[in-house]
Write a structure and sequence with these properties.
The chain has 377 residues and is mainly alpha-helical. It folds into 4 domains: 2-41, no CATH class; 45-142, DNA polymerase, domain 1 (Orthogonal Bundle); 146-314, hpI Integrase, Chain A (Orthogonal Bundle); 319-371, no CATH class. It is 53% helix and 5% strand. It has 18 helices and 5 strands. It has helices at residues 2-10, 15-27, 30-41, 45-55, 61-74, 89-102, 105-124, 153-162, 166-176, 223-233, 256-265, 274-290, 292-300, 303-309, 316-323, 343-352, 358-366, 368-371, and strands at residues 194-195, 200-204, 216-220, 326-329, 332-335. The strands form 2 sheets. It has a 3-stranded antiparallel β-sheet. A two-stranded antiparallel ribbon has the order 4-5. Helix 5 packs across helix 7. The longest helix is centred in the N-terminal third of the chain and has 20 residues, at 105-124. The protein is elongated.
């Protein structure tokens, strides 16, 4: 009887269920019933999360942080001592609705994705649940268009001017002109990765390294980026350094707060997801100027990912270029048409007016005048 009382106290099911199991355990299949009850004893929500996170040992620190955030929000609606069977579709729908009140849809979609991985593991690997209660519940979009912001070259120049030192100028240049993911790709960049003679550098990508042949990519040393890198490399304080961004090695790489201070000093205010915005803007520029193949290779993602997450917005320069007007960039007039073009070339440009329709795209690739009309072309 003492053994049955112990089982009743710790069993996560109801008291009625305990009485039924006690009858089964002592009257029909004592060994099987006791093992089953002891197994169920540990299957609480807390046990589920603990065991899953012990199991997931091959994930990066950023993913660990994402799971921890998801767990924190999960236990705002579920108790740690509840049985995992209490995680029902109905309760999950309420949990999602409550989350959407205080969080953006893209954030909630991320939490649902991570929770689904936990529950899918419980179903398929552990056989603790017969089905995933999240199955059929739409997670929503990961894309938050409200946070999209194009950081123009004029704003980029202002950011550089507001930087406290050359290292921060290089950080912003690598993100805005090089299109690097920050901080993951930035913190691994070494001076030995830069080939000054061939005008390119190697970017090592922790995010895509698990895909075959995607552990690194080669990116051109764009003129604006090369200027900042050479200036940085020439400093006495840089000599002998292994990493391009040496000052942040061994730290938590907290880039957000210092960047926001730079942005405010530049008169740009607060920029949501600043390094995503820098990279997205460059992705769109490269795609417009050099096409999808080079954009995918240099920025480091597939065309499908670009369409989903890097749609971006057309910059003021893009519209000015299309209209063939003069803009003021960093205090200087900048003719969006190449001033060295011949009269026949200008006639060609006037005829096309940089239209963005399909016919123009085909003609622009064939017309030698149009190929030289782009800035820097």
């Amino acid at each position: 009887m003492l053994r049955s009382v112990r089982l009743c106290v710790h069993c996560p099911v109801s008291a009625f269920g305990c009485n039924v199991w006690r009858y089964v355990a002592f009257s029909l299949y004592p060994s099987l019933a006791i093992v089953t009850i002891l197994a169920n004893e540990a299957k609480t929500c807390q046990y589920l999360w603990d065991e899953f996170q012990k199991y997931k040992t091959d994930i990066k620190s950023k993913t660990v942080k994402a799971y921890n955030e998801c767990r924190l929000h999960f236990f705002k609606s579920f108790s740690e001592t509840e049985a995992i069977e209490a995680i029902t579709p109905e309760r999950l729908l309420k949990w999602k609705a409550a989350m959407l009140i205080t969080h953006a849809e893209a954030s909630v979609a991320g939490y649902i994705k991570n929770l689904s991985a936990v529950l899918r593991w419980a179903v398929k690997t552990q056989k603790w649940l017969s089905e995933n209660p999240l199955e059929g519940i739409k997670r929503g979009s990961f894309v938050n268009d409200d946070n999209n912001r194009t950081i123009s070259m004029a704003e980029y120049a202002k950011l550089l001017d507001a930087c406290p030192n050359q290292e921060w100028r290089t950080i912003i240049a690598l993100a805005r002109i090089g299109g690097l993911r920050c901080p993951s790709e930035l913190q691994q960049l070494r001076w030995s990765d830069i080939d000054w003679e061939k005008n390119w550098f190697t970017v090592w990508s922790p995010k895509t390294e698990h895909h075959e042949g995607k552990d690194k990519r080669v990116v051109p040393l764009f003129h604006e980026l090369q200027t900042e890198l050479k200036q940085h490399f020439s400093l006495d304080s840089t000599k002998g350094n292994e990493f391009v961004i040496q000052g942040l090695q061994g730290t938590a790489w907290n880039l957000h707060e210092p960047f926001q201070k730079i942005a405010r000093n530049a008169g740009l205010g607060t920029i949501d997801r600043p390094f995503d915005s820098l990279r997205t803007t460059r992705s769109h520029e490269v795609w417009e100027r050099w096409g999808a193949a080079k954009e995918n290779a240099w920025i480091g993602h597939s065309e499908a990912i670009r369409k989903k997450h890097y749609k971006g917005q057309f910059s003021d320069e893009a519209f000015a270029e299309a209209a063939g007007v003069v803009m003021v960039v960093s205090g200087e007039q900048k003719n969006m048409l190449n001033p060295m073009l011949s009269g026949s070339a200008r006639h060609c440009l006037d005829a096309h007016r940089f239209s963005r329709n399909a016919c123009f795209q085909v003609h622009a690739r064939r017309c030698k005048f149009m190929q030289g009309a782009m800035i820097g072309g």
